[in-house]
Amino acid sequence: MAKKASELKGSDVRALSDDELQDKILKLKEEQFKLRFQQARGLMEDTARFGKIRRDVARIRTELASRKAQQTQGS
C-alpha cells in the first residue's frame, strides 16, 4: 500500500496558489471517496484518515474564503 500524505499545516496551505488549493481539494475528495469503498469492503487500515481529510479540506476552504474576503475588501 502506498504511503499516505500527512496532514496539511496552515503554513503549507497559505504557501499554495488558489489553483493549487482547488487541485488539492479535488485530490483529497477523491481519496475520501476511495476510503469509503475500502471501509465498505472491510479493508480500511487507517480509520482516522477520514477525519484528517475532512480537516484538510476545511483548512483549504477556509484559506480560500479568507483570500476572497481580502480581495473584496481591497477592491
SSE topology sketch:
Layout: H1 10-15, H2 18-41, H3 49-74
Helix pairs in contact: 2-3
Structure description:
With 75 residues, this protein is mainly alpha-helical. The protein has one domain: Orthogonal Bundle (Helix Hairpins), CATH 1.10.287. Helix content is 75%, strand content 0%. The chain has 3 helices and no strands. Helix 2 packs antiparallel against helix 3 (49-74).
Core attributes:
Helix Hairpins, 3 helices, mainly alpha, 75 residues, elongated
How does the major sheet shape up?
A: none
**Helix tally?**
3
The residue ranges in which pLDDT falls below 50 over 5 or more consecutive positions are none
Strand and helix order? HHH
Overall helicity: over 70%
The chain-level mean pLDDT equals 89
Overall radius of gyration: 15 Å
| Name of the CATH architecture | Orthogonal Bundle
| Oligomeric assembly | single chain
In whole angstroms, the N-to-C terminal distance is 48 Å
**Cα shape:** elongated
CATH topology: Helix Hairpins
The percentage of residues in β strands lies in under 5%
